[in-house]
UniProtKB/TrEMBL annotation, chain A:
It comes from the Bacteria. The keyword Lipid biosynthesis does not apply. The lineage of its organism: Bacteria, Pseudomonadati, Pseudomonadota, Alphaproteobacteria, Rhodobacterales. Its main location: periplasm. Keywords: Signal. Residues 67-418 form the Solute-binding protein family domain. This is ABC transporter substrate-binding protein. Residues 1-23 form the signal peptide. The keyword Signal applies.
Automatic annotation (TrEMBL), chain B:
Belongs to the binding-protein-dependent transport system permease family. Its main location: membrane. The keyword Plastid does not apply. This is ABC transporter permease. It comes from Paracoccus aurantius. It is found in: Cell membrane. The keyword Cell inner membrane does not apply.
Length: 504, 313
């Protein structure tokens, strides 16, 4: 009854008919059940989207993807040599269980992050110690300068989440307790994850910007509903059941645009499909064959086949879209050559013997498969023999771990705020891409703290990527989300947050 | 009768054991690593190895099988890899929507199919008979996902009579939850009514030509009484068989409809479990469904004796 009354009142006040989606409970359709509610343990975007509402990190990103403090008082004091980070904590932070945040919680959380989180493990070797000189200060001592550290501490994906000491036991969590503006109330797997406003939350005083600044607490309840079928997400949005729906099929754009209850949210330059290349074994360990592969691929046709309408993609060889600080044009001429003759010459130079190029892909993401279909034709025209291995994502996830089983596997990534967060550049990654020049540039890039120099180094890294064909970026693609008409306060993002969402 | 039931129960246990063995072997023969899936796309090979070890998936397959069978005998179906909850609890959470969905669907199917089937048989060869047969063929030919999408779009999105999907939030009452199930039940009811209609018609046609029906009519008994009391009672056995098996199929096989309407039932669970390579959940669901299947079969067989006194065990 209360719901109906509030709804009627809201409609009366605004003079417009509000859909049930904008009642005090905000229902958000997500693409499926998150694998875990502990954001340290997963790199899945859906895990980040949900958990960022109740678990927080020391730092976060503002609307320009700059690192900004969250649980930390301010950006850290970094020693001259770049190896000591001194972080002051905010004093007024309460966990959802009523305990108060202090440096012991942070030290334990960060140590756990270094030992269990994928991204934490990646930096663990360089961390000498994490200590707490006093109750509100934490010091991180590195063995050598590592500039992506702050971005890693800020990222909500495989996050350096801060938990109370009491809930961490032998690397496991006994409960999900955070400091966020919303707290976890009920989790019914495959049905909903219900979050309620946390009354003890004290927002930051700075104006809100992206995930940084003062986080609001607008809806009484945020309810994430896993809806794996994309057309069911569309119908749920159009019927007014959901206030927001994540990852809609691009074919639904016109219907959502024409709806009187919902409108599309098009997140341009959301991510990039990537052809991951096996440098450890097989055909593509030969640089000429890698170059032939790159020369033969018709990126524009592949992107068109995958996304259907140029509203939803851009054929772009630079590793970052326009507007990002990492954008540069080094060697982009090598992108989208679509040149079967050059490819054939390179194959000849490599004495290619007709061994099939094994492409491992999945139909879980239909655009991966569509791109591969088009590429297969172009590659065959250039003289490659191609063997497509189309499997489900679970199988792909397993098979790509064995370098003997594939030459290329297809995946995608959002544009990450810090290039070093993309582990494909690292020689230790599954791809095993390594050459002395590139490894040296990467080492300098991660050690450098000056932004201008880092941008320059990233240009060189991109040059190496395209000239040595470390992996292949196919283009930029957009992501279609949908929101109820009249819903405000959600910034378009690969990881949208809903604490400020409501009808205005 | 007691001997018959005992014999059937022994058979049941054998069937269930076979099902779980086959399920165990098949899911492990399929490629795909639950650990890699759980960790996400950027996890390293070592992370996956560590998690596999933690989950016990690195143990020899025979050791895993022995431990699975021994635990199953104690009623412990293991722990879901994905949910980190006992499989029995995961299944119990999913049983309610599926059972009600199957129940409503079978009610819809019976209510739609049996009167039409009886009438079609009674008016054999008439226009209405032809129309009923054609409608049944049409209903059987329409894929349930397509019908689901069409009805969802029309009745939920456009008209707003039903929720488009789901099973209600934490504050939903029992009646509200049932409201979520009406539209998908209608879809399954229509799809499954086709078979029941055809069985009802065929079975009624058989008995309407029997001597005792003619005798009843010659004694001056009213047509309605002849059809419902004499003919339908004797035609009931094949109808009950098909209704029973359809119900069992609905409980185990409403996968597509549960998916389209995002109902958190057992069908949806098993699809997700396969995609997630959640072995204990796949095995547990198969055991429960196989058990249910054989129980329903037994109940149907026992009902024969209740309906038709000539049937003796």
């Amino acid at each position: 009854m209360n719901k109906l009354r509030n709804l009627a009142l809201a409609a009366l006040l605004s003079g417009t008919a509000l859909s049930p989606a904008l009642a005090e409970t905000l229902e958000v359709a997500i693409i499926g059940e998150p694998q875990t509610l502990d954001p340290m343990m997963s790199t899945q975007d859906v895990v980040s989207i949900v958990t960022q509402h109740f678990v927080e990190t020391m730092y976060t990103f503002d609307s320009q993807w700059q690192v900004a403090p969250l649980l930390a008082e301010a950006l850290p004091e970094i020693s001259e040599d770049g190896t000591l980070y001194r972080i002051s904590l905010r004093h007024d932070i309460t966990f959802h269980d009523g305990s108060t945040l202090d440096s012991a919680d942070v030290v334990d959380s960060l140590n756990r992050w270094l030992s269990v989180a994928t991204r934490g493990k990646g930096v663990a070797e360089q961390v000498e110690s994490i200590t707490a000189p006093d109750a509100h200060t934490v010091e991180i001592k590195l063995s050598q300068p590592y500039s992506p550290l702050l971005s890693l501490l800020a990222f909500s994906n495989s996050a350096a989440a801060i938990y109370p000491q009491e809930v961490m036991k032998d690397g496991d969590l006994t409960a999900i307790v955070g400091t966020g503006p919303y707290k976890l109330v009920e989790h019914k797997p495959d049905q909903y994850i219900s979050l309620a406003r946390f009354e003890g939350f004290v927002p930051r005083s700075e104006p809100s910007s992206g995930n940084a600044g003062g986080r609001k607490q607008v809806p009484d309840e945020i309810r994430f509903v896993p809806v794996p079928d994309p057309s069911t997400r569309v119908e749920g949005l159009l019927s007014g059941q959901f206030a927001y729906a994540d990852a809609l099929p691009v074919e639904a754009f016109d219907r959502v645009s024409a709806s009187d209850k919902a409108e599309p949210v098009l997140l341009q330059d959301f991510g990039w499909p990537v052809w991951a290349i096996n440098h450890k074994a097989g055909l593509l360990t030969d640089a000429n064959i890698r170059k032939a592969l790159q020369a033969a691929l018709p990126m524009d046709d592949m992107m068109f086949a995958a996304f259907g309408d140029d509203k939803f993609f851009k054929v772009d060889g630079a590793m970052y879209p326009e507007g990002w600080p990492w954008r540069n044009e080094t060697e982009v001429g090598l992108y989208n050559q679509n040149d079967p003759e050059t490819a054939a010459e390179l194959l000849k130079a490599a004495n290619y013997d007709g061994t099939p190029l094994r492409i491992l892909t999945s139909r879980q993401y239909e655009f991966h498969f569509k791109m591969a279909e088009i590429a297969k034709m172009a590659l065959e025209q250039a003289g490659f023999k191609v063997e497509m291995n189309v499997v489900d994502w679970a199988t792909l996830g397993q098979q790509r771990n064995d370098p003997a089983l594939w030459d290329v596997y297809i995946t995608h990534s959002p544009f990450l705020p810090e290039p070093a967060l993309t582990d494909l550049y690292a020689p230790t990654s599954r791809l095993g891409w390594s050459n002395p020049e590139k490894d040296e540039i990467l080492q300098q890039f991660t050690a450098e703290t000056d932004m201008a120099k880092r941008q320059d180094l990233f240009g060189k890294l991109q040059g190496q990527l395209l000239s040595d064909v470390g992996f292949i970026k196919i283009g930029n693609f957009a992501s279609l989300h949908g929101k109820a008409k009249g819903l405000h306060g959600v910034d378009p993002s690969p990881w949208p947050a809903f604490w400020g969402a409501g009808a205005q | 009768m007691v001997q018959y039931i005992a014999r059937r129960l022994v058979g049941m246990v054998t069937v269930i054991f076979l099902v779980l063995t086959i399920a165990f072997v098949i899911v492990r023969l399929a490629p795909g690593d639950p650990a890699a899936l759980l960790l996400g796309p950027e996890a390293s090979v070592q992370d996956a190895i560590d998690l596999r070890q933690k989950l016990g998936l690195d143990r020899p397959i025979l050791v895993q099988y022995a431990s699975f069978v021994l635990n199953a005998l104690r009623g412990d179906l293991g722990t879901s890899i994905f949910f980190n909850q006992p499989v029995t609890q995961v299944l119990a959470d999913r049983a309610e929507p599926t059972v009600f969905l199957a129940l409503f669907s079978i009610i819809f199917a019976v209510v739609i199919a049996t009167p039409i089937g009886i009438f079609a048989a009674y008016r054999r060869g008439s226009f209405l008979d032809q129309a009923a047969i054609s409608a049944a063929m049409l209903a059987a030919s329409i894929p349930s996902f397509w019908m689901g999408l069409i009805l969802q779009r029309h009745f939920a999105t456009t008209l707003g009579w039903f929720p488009a999907s789901g099973y209600g939030g934490p504050d939903a009452t029992f009646l509200e939850r049932m409201h979520y199930l009406l539209l998908p039940s209608l879809v399954l009811g229509i799809v499954n009514s086709a078979l029941i209609l055809r069985f009802t018609r065929a079975s009624m046609l058989d008995v309407l030509g029997e001597d005792y029906v003619r005798t009843a009519r010659s004694k001056g008994m009213g047509e309605l009484r002849v059809v419902l009391r004499h003919a339908l009672k004797n035609a009931a056995i094949p109808i009950i068989t098909v209704v029973g098996l359809t119900f069992a199929l609905l409980v185990s096989g409403a996968v597509v409809t549960e998916r389209v309407f995002n109902i958190p039932g057992m069908g949806n669970l098993v699809v997700n479990a396969v995609l997630r390579r959640d072995y204990p959940v796949i095995q547990g669901t198969l055991i429960v469904v196989a058990t249910l299947y054989v129980i329903i079969n037994l109940v149907v067989d026992l009902l024969y004796a209740v309906i038709d006194r000539r049937v003796k065990y």
